[in-house]
Amino acid sequence: MKRIFLTLCIILLFATITIGAEKRAILCFSAQWCKPCQQLKCTTLIDPKVKKTIKNKDIRFEIIDIDKNPKYTSIWKIRSIPAMKFIVYDDKTFKSKILSSTLGYISAKSLIERIDKLYKGEKENDSGP
User: Fold this and answer.
1) Is 117 within 8 Å of 109 (Cβ atoms)?
2) pTM for the whole thing?
């Protein structure tokens, strides 16, 4: 049952992205009261190089506040924050795969290196409707 719910959550996450191709996503789990989370948001996540890398590789980036969305902490097995899950999802087969995870603060340089390693190559942007 938990696996089905996880699949449904991923389907909803990608509902606004073009259907028919492998999707890439980074889920960032944080909270307002978490100082390392706030540091991550104020330094790493606003870095222009990070934003450019995420855009060029067509990665969906979601920040999930664990206090506002507590169900996701158990679904994604979040025990400490900040935490990131790097995933790929195929909407034809409804299968997802966690490629990697991070725990704690990560610098912009380290995040870009991890993204480049996990999500090789740039994806062509579909200019659909």
Assistant:
1) no
2) 0.75
